[in-house]
Amino acid sequence: MNHLQTIYHLQPTPTARVQQRLAVRGIVARRRELLLLYTGRYDDYSLPGGGVEANEDHALALARELAEETGARDVRILRPFGLIDEFRPPRGDYDVLHMLSYCYVCRIAATLAAPQMEAYEINNRMQPRWLDVDAAIAHNQAVLARGAAGMGLSIVRETALLRRIAQALDAGEL
């Protein structure tokens, strides 16, 4: 898979205890509109997706995550889009969290079912929305420019991904 970018929220040391987390993200487009998640807690837009569970391949993880977060059905991966890796503050007994986000261009059924979000997603006020990619980029850039105190780290990755997707759409590659 094409490596798109490495993001450093912190710089790992050579002796750092690194926890690795694998995630998948789905790119579902209708012309320039994307199926995105709006997170009210952070006031940002992101691609649907999440962690790959043990004994789960990327296709199964993506179908599960898109169904949970957006209500998408009949998720089919068309092709890989790219990989973003990021080094984030740790969880638990580690010094660094190394997140690998594998992004795929997908097709879904024409209508969405009701999302089946997890408790933290409900608490974060996440909602699936179809939104023009340029509007999503502009919104996230405004949030980044404000440097809001409650801003999440994921907005950096998500805005970078949205820019790459916009470039691919402009080039007729999606």
From TrEMBL:
This is ADP-ribose pyrophosphatase YjhB (NUDIX family). Gene3D superfamilies: Nucleoside Triphosphate Pyrophosphohydrolase. Residues 19-153 form the Nudix hydrolase domain. It comes from the Bacteria. Transmembrane segments: none annotated. It comes from Vogesella indigofera (Pseudomonas indigofera). GO terms for molecular function: hydrolase activity. Its cofactor is Mg(2+). The keyword Mitochondrion does not apply. Keywords: Hydrolase. It holds the Pfam family NUDIX.
